[in-house]
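Intended use. Records like the one below are meant for learning the mapping from a protein sequence to its folded structure. Do not use them to infer anything beyond what is encoded.
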Amino acid sequence: MSLRIVLLTAALILAGAVGGMIAFQVHIPMPWMLGSLAVSALAVGLFQKTALEGYKFPNPLRNCFVALIGVMIGTQVTPELFEILPRIPLILLALAVFVVAAHFGNYLIFQKVGGMDRSTAFYSGTPGGLMESILFGEQAGADIRVLTIQQFLRIILVISLVPTGISLWVGHPVGSAAGPVGDAAPALDLAHAAMIAGCGAVGLALARVVHLPASQLIGPMLLAAGLTLSGMVDLHLPFWLIASAQVVIGASLGLRFTGVTLRLLRRSVGLSLLSVGYMILLGGLLAALVQPIVDVDYLVMFISFAPGGVTEMSLVALSLAASPALVSLHHVLRILMTVMELTITSKWMGLR
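Structure written out for the chain above:
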C-alpha cells in the first residue's frame, strides 16, 4: 500500500469521524455512519478529479471493521434465538414473496418510469446480490454505470431512511443517535482487545475456507456467538469501537459516488426513492403479517425486511439493539434467495 493511499485513507476516516461527531450532536439516526458517508461523498464531489483521482478505499481495512461488527453481533446471541428456528420455514416463505414481488415491482419502475432497457431495469431492480447483479448485468449488456449507481443508492437510501423513519415513528432519536446501547462495556485492556481481534481474524479465516456468504461478517459472528453461548469468554466491544466501525463503513460507502455525474445522480435518486419506498412498504406489510406468528418485536421484523446490505443492516440493528443476530440471518437468507431468483428468472426472460 503506497504512502498516498495511507494518507488519503487516514484523512477520509478523520474527516468521517468529524462528520459523525457533528451528526451525533444534532441527533441524526446512525450518526457515525451517515455523517461519515456524507463527508466522504462530499469529498468525492470536490476532489474526485484531483486528490482522489484513481483512489479506492482499502478493502482489507474495511473487512477488519466488518469483522468487528460480526464479533459484536455474535455477543448479542442468546439461547432465546433458537426458539425461532421452528418458524424458519415461514420466514423463508415471506422472504421469497418479498424477493419476487420487490424485483418485479422494481423492474416495472425502472423500465416504465425510468425508461431503462430490459437488461438494465432487470438487474437494477434486484433487492440484494449487488455484485452478482453487476456481473450478470454486464454479461447481458446492461448499462453498468446506471446499474451500479442504482444498486449503491438502494443500500445508501435504506440505511438513511429506515433509522430516520423509526426515529420519527417513536418520536425521539433511537440507537446510537441517543448514545451507547446497553450497559457500559468495561475498559478495553490488552488481553480483551487480543481476544476480540483473534475472534474476528479466526472467524473470518474459517468462513472463507467453507465459503460462507458475507464471510467477513458471518464468520466472526458465528464464532463469537459460539464462544458467548458456551460461557468460555465474555466479549464486550466498547461503544467507541462500534462508532469507529460505522465511520469506516460510512467512508467506504461515500466513495462509491466516484465517477457519478450530477445529472445521472439527480435522475437516479428519484427512481431510487420510488423503488426503495415501494420495497420498504412491501417489507413493512410482510413484517406485519409474519410478526404475530414468529412472535418477535415488529421493529426487528421491519428491519429484517429492509433491503439494505448485510453489513449495513446489521449495523442498523446493532445500533437500535434490535436482535442483530436475527436480522443478520434474515439478510443473509434474502441475498441467497435473491441470487437464486436472479439466476432462474434471467434465463427465463432470455437475459443470460
